[in-house]
Design a protein that fits this description.
With 342 residues, the chain is an alpha/beta fold. 42% of the residues lie in helices and 19% in strands. It is built from ten helices and ten strands. The strands form two sheets. Strands 3-2-1-4-5 form a five-stranded mixed sheet, with helices on both faces. A hairpin with a 2-residue loop joins strand 7 and strand 8. Helix 6 crosses helix 8. The chain is globular. It starts with a strand and ends in a 24-residue tail after the last helix. Bound molecules: adenosine-5'-triphosphate, magnesium ion and fe (iii) ion. The site of magnesium ion (MG) has 6 residues, from loops. It catalyses: L-threonylcarbamoyladenylate + adenosine(37) in tRNA = N(6)-L-threonylcarbamoyladenosine(37) in tRNA + AMP + H(+). Its EC number is 2.3.1.234. One of its GO terms (molecular function) is tRNA N(6)-L-threonylcarbamoyladenine synthase activity. It is found in: Cytoplasm.
């Protein structure tokens, strides 16, 4: 089954063609980063308008890249939620219009299920069951995954998502949006022994996270350095490193706990922050010690993309699942999903 995947939940327009027999045929991404940069974050109305401009040309581009025509599409999958309602609406209506015109089946996909299944596009795909750490701009969750659509929430952030904390710390450091990769790059120059920031909620049992206090701690550290006239380039890098180390350590401690609690040997890490190199290196080392293994998407499939939506949609479409009408769900808890049902 050849599935066209469409992602428009936030500030990237993602389109891909996935063939359930041949794998990924083509994928294209248009990021709106430059459009939102001057506002320091995503402006929902501008995002919707830009998706309407970019979506159809991207679909043409992906078809051309794959050497196919619209008539070769067997089914369509689009992100139905969670996300910005206007942005979701653009993808949903375009997808349903196309499906009607081509007379092919269509399905609205959960954006976080897309992230969660993204490592399945890699040559060494994880088998079920596994524990998933979903760590992105809007989510930090640990999920026990028994199979497709069989998800049990083990823990989540009680305040900011890890990616959101990276973005806010980037702002404090006057780094451009989105800040995750910028903070990570600055941290490379930092000395990890200069400051030690707290590892929130690791001193008590449980699998929930909190990153808002760490953000405040970082702000206080920067203000103190400023008052001491000591906020030079090296100090900024040292703060970035201390913040990154604290986030990474916290995530690793909770992942280890989740694997212990569930008895699983496989960990899937997905979402924008899973691109972070220090997180990957630290996790790999920690898991190797316990004979466990982590699986990640390739770099460009960590953040939002059409390939993960095409893949996740294909799994459910193949089982006969369909959507009747474009119904965006801006809020949609992952644990509400069920295995595919026709
Ligand atoms: P969600 O998927 O929860 O709806 P989203 O789609 O906005 O949110 P993603 O696109 O998956 O999130 O990820 C974007 C986030 O990942 C941003 O917060 C960004 O700063 C962060 N990020 C990207 N690369 C890195 C990195 N190398 N290190 C740390 N954070 C990163
Ligand atoms: Mg994004
Ligand atoms: Fe996302």
């Amino acid at each position: 089954m050849r599935v066209l995947g469409i992602e428009t939940s936030c500030d990237e327009t993602g389109v891909a063609l996935y063939d359930s027999e041949q794998g990924l045929l083509a994928d294209a991404l248009y990021s709106q980063i430059a459009l939102h940069a001057e506002f320091g974050g995503v402006v929902p109305e501008l995002a919707s308008r830009d998706h309407t401009r970019k979506l159809l040309p991207l679909i043409d581009q992906v078809l051309a890249d794959a050497g196919l025509i619209k008539g070769d599409i067997d089914a369509i999958a689009y992100t139905a939620g969670p996300g910005l309602v206007g942005a979701l609406m653009v993808g949903a209506c375009t997808a349903h219009g196309m499906a009607r015109a081509l007379a092919v089946p269509i399905l609205g996909v959960h954006h976080m299920e897309g992230h969660l299944l993204a490592p399945m596009l890699e040559p060494e795909a994880p088998d079920f069951p596994f524990v998933a750490l979903l760590v992105s701009g809007g989510h930090t969750q640990l999920v026990d995954v028994r199979g497709l659509g069989d998800y049990r929430l083990l823990g989540e952030s009680v305040d900011d998502a890890a990616g959101e904390a990276f973005d806010k710390v980037a702002k404090m450091l006057d780094l451009p949006y989105p800040g995750g990769p910028q903070v990570a790059a600055l941290a490379e120059q930092g000395d990890s022994s200069r400051f030690r920031f707290p590892r929130p909620m690791t001193d008590r049992p449980g699998l929930d996270f909190s990153f808002s206090g760490l953000k405040t701690h970082t702000l206080t550290a920067l203000r103190t350095l400023e008052q001491q006239a000591a906020l030079d380039a090296q100090a900024r890098a040292d703060v970035a490193r201390a913040f990154e180390d604290a986030v990474v350590d916290t995530l690793v401690i909770k992942c280890r706990r989740a694997l212990e609690a569930s008895g699983r040997q496989r960990l899937v890490v997905a979402g924008g922050v899973s691109a972070n190199r220090r997180l990957r290196a630290t996790l790999d080392a920690a898991l190797a010690k316990r004979g466990a293994r982590a699986y990640y998407p390739r770099g460009r499939f960590c953040t939002d993309n059409g390939a993960m939506i095409a893949y996740a949609g294909a799994q459910r479409l193949l089982a006969g699942q369909r959507s009747d009408t474009p119904q965006p769900r801006p809020r949609w808890p992952l644990a509400e999903l069920t295995p595919p049902q026709p």
